[in-house]
Structures are given as structure tokens and as C-alpha cells.
Q: What sequence folds into this?
């Protein structure tokens, strides 16, 4: 009979998957989509993307999506609709203002809301793009869109009551309600609480090396928050986005051929729909462009001309990168005086590499050199 006593009741722990936020950054650069249009027009890519977003929403009813357009001169929200655009004072966190219900009674309401908001906002964005906007820059605002995505994720995680509430309920002791009211078991373990979040960038534009510093800052912020950045490249390979995926533990896939463009939906569903936990047990689809997982391009852009450099000079104080020796030996970023005279025009990295290779070959041949005995032995 003790079993019916209230004190022995146990609360069933919430074993379901935590809600997941998927933020998609869609590159809407008209220059890039014009080049892609023979094999992949924007409306086809958008249709595939909507199916992908619906699949994410269908996995878990608590899942959320957010979509940003990385345009030529600015980054804009496609979903949820920002309050300033809709004229209402509704907060963005609850999905924006109430959308008119779809005429199609057979469509699941959240799918219809996402589709309507994205198509309406994208049409408005393209309609307000003037030829002057297009001529000002040929590339896209990835850094701005990434920053918006990260701030939205942080805001959502900070305000999300669902995750922390459920964690506190499971930690509540009915036998002794006062025992753990100040217990920190219900507290969020990571910076973002139990809301899992990831970012997917659909990239169609080449790198803008002028955005190197803000892009890298956004990547490091994402790395610190534990948000993986997935990248799907549809046109030319992007050095910065490869590094973004590598640094944050995301997936980078390049699908640049017309044949792979035809399978965009398949790539999205098989490569990017599984969450980071499920990915541990899955094998990533093979790279179509030939560059394997180890082929990350780690080159950086110099801080002086924003050129992507293979070998450069690094300030020993602030780690700024320069393509050539700085004038007067003064760092352009921090102003520290650097001793450069002994290195001449060539960076120090080149002679050191040559020396190592030489020693390795002489040791392999069994020839003893006077320098090899005193040198640090190479780790086995
Ligand atoms: Zn430079
Ligand atoms: Zn410096």
C-alpha cells in the first residue's frame, strides 16, 4: 500500500531530444545566382531548402528554424519576420507576427507559416535591390549574417524557459520539497542551456577577403558557444567557410557540379539534417569536388591589403598577419615596434623548413653531421 503514498512518486525524466534551433544563412547574392541559374535556379534551391526546413520542424515539435538572407549590401531576416518590417510590436522570439492561415487546408500550419514568411520576405528583399546596390559589391555579407545568427541564438537560449523548466522539474524532490530548491542541478550546463543549435550556410559566392576579420571573429564566437557551422558550397570553394566548419566541428561539403546541383535536396537531407549527436554514427557523403575532409584551406587574409596569403609576417604581439614587412617595423594594428631587419624580405618560415628536411635526409642516409648530434631529437 506504500506504493500509493505520494512520497514515493517519482517524476518521469524528460528523455526526449532537446529542442534544436537550425539557423540557415542563404546566400542571396544575385551575381552568384545568375551564374548558377542554368543548373540551379534560386527558386529550385529555395524549394529544396523549404523541404529541408520542414523536415527539421517535423523531427521534434519543439524544434525551431530561423532563416537569414546574406545579400549584397546587407543581411536580412527571412524568418522569423523582424518586428520593424511587419509594423507590429511582436517580439521575434515567438516566431514573429501571426501569419494569415494558408488557403491549403492540407498543409501543416507551421510549414505554411515558414514558407509564407520566407517567400514574402525574399521577394521584398529582391524587389528593393537596386542596380546601384549590385554594382557596389560583387559578393555577399556572410560576416553580418553570421553575427545576426549568433545573436539570435544567444537571445533565444537566454529567454527559452522550456529547457531550464523541464530540467528543474526533474530535479524537484516531492518527499522533501525544501531539499534542493537552491540546488544547481537544474542549471544549464553549457552556455546555451539545453537548446541545441547549429548554423547552416548555403554559400554561392566567392570569399570576400575584406570581411576576413569579422568572419573569423564570428567563427571564434560560434566555437566558444559550441555552435557548429555547417557549410554547403554551391559555387567556388570558400577558404573562410572551410575554416568555419573545421573550427566549430561542422560539416563542409562542396557541390559545385551541375549533376550535384540536381541532388541538392538529397545532399541537404542526408548530409545536414542529422544533428551533431547522430552524426557520430553516420558516415559523411563523399566529397564530389575531390577535396577530402583533410583538405581544409587554412590560408588567411593579410590585415594590410586583405589579400589571401600563403606565407606572411605575423606580429608577435597581436598576431596580425601582413603579406610584406611592415613599414618602419611598426605593426599596423597594435603599433608595436618589431625587429624585422635580420629576416630580410623572406619570412622566417621558409629557411627553417628547408633545414629540417635536409637533416632528415642525412640521417636516413646514415651520414653523421656535426650539427645533428647537438640538435633536439625528433619525437618518434
Ligand atoms: Zn597585405
Ligand atoms: Zn601587432
A:
Amino acid at each position: 500500500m506504500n506504493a500509493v503514498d505520494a512520497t514515493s512518486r517519482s517524476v518521469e525524466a524528460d528523455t526526449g531530444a532537446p529542442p534544436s534551433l537550425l539557423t540557415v544563412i542563404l546566400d542571396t547574392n544575385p551575381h552568384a545566382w545568375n551564374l548558377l541559374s542554368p543548373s540551379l535556379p534560386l527558386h529550385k534551391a529555395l524549394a529544396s531548402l523549404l523541404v529541408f526546413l520542414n523536415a527539421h520542424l517535423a523531427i521534434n515539435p519543439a524544434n525551431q528554424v530561423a532563416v537569414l538572407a546574406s545579400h549584397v549590401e546587407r543581411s536580412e531576416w527571412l524568418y522569423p519576420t523582424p518586428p520593424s518590417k511587419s509594423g507590429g510590436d511582436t517580439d521575434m522570439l515567438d516566431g514573429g507576427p501571426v501569419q494569415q492561415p494558408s488557403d491549403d487546408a492540407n498543409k501543416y500550419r507551421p510549414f505554411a507559416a515558414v514558407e509564407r514568411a520566407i517567400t514574402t520576405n525574399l521577394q521584398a528583399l529582391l524587389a528593393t535591390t537596386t542596380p546601384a546596390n549590385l554594382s557596389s559589391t560583387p559578393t555577399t555579407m556572410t560576416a553580418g549574417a553570421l553575427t545576426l545568427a549568433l545573436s539570435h541564438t544567444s537571445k533565444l537560449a537566454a529567454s527559452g524557459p522550456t529547457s531550464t523548466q523541464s530540467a528543474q522539474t526533474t530535479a524537484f524532490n516531492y518527499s522533501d520539497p525544501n531539499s534542493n530548491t537552491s540546488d544547481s542541478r537544474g542549471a544549464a550546463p553549457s552556455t546555451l542551456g539545453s537548446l541545441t543549435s547549429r548554423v547552416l550556410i548555403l554559400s554561392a559566392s566567392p570569399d570576400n577577403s575584406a570581411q576576413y576579420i569579422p568572419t573569423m571573429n564570428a567563427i571564434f564566437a560560434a566555437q566558444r558557444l559550441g555552435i557548429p557551422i555547417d557549410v554547403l558550397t554551391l559555387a567556388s570553394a570558400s577558404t573562410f567557410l572551410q575554416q568555419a566548419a573545421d573550427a566549430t566541428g561542422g560539416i563542409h561539403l562542396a557541390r559545385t557540379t551541375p549533376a550535384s546541383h540536381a541532388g541538392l535536396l538529397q545532399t541537404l537531407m542526408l548530409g545536414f539534417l542529422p544533428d551533431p549527436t547522430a552524426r557520430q554514427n553516420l558516415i559523411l557523403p563523399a566529397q564530389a569536388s575531390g577535396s577530402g575532409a583533410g583538405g581544409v584551406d587554412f590560408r588567411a587574409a593579410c590585415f594590410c591589403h586583405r589579400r589571401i596569403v600563403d606565407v606572411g609576417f605575423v606580429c608577435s604581439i597581436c598576431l596580425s598577419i601582413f603579406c610584406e614587412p611592415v613599414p618602419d617595423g611598426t605593426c599596423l594594428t597594435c603599433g608595436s615596434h618589431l625587429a624585422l631587419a635580420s629576416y630580410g624580405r623572406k619570412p622566417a618560415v621558409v629557411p627553417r623548413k628547408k633545414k629540417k628536411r635536409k637533416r632528415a635526409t642525412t640521417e636516413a642516409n646514415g651520414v653523421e653531421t656535426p650539427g645533428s648530434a647537438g640538435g633536439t631529437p625528433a619525437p618518434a
User: Anything to note?
Assistant: The mean pLDDT is 76.
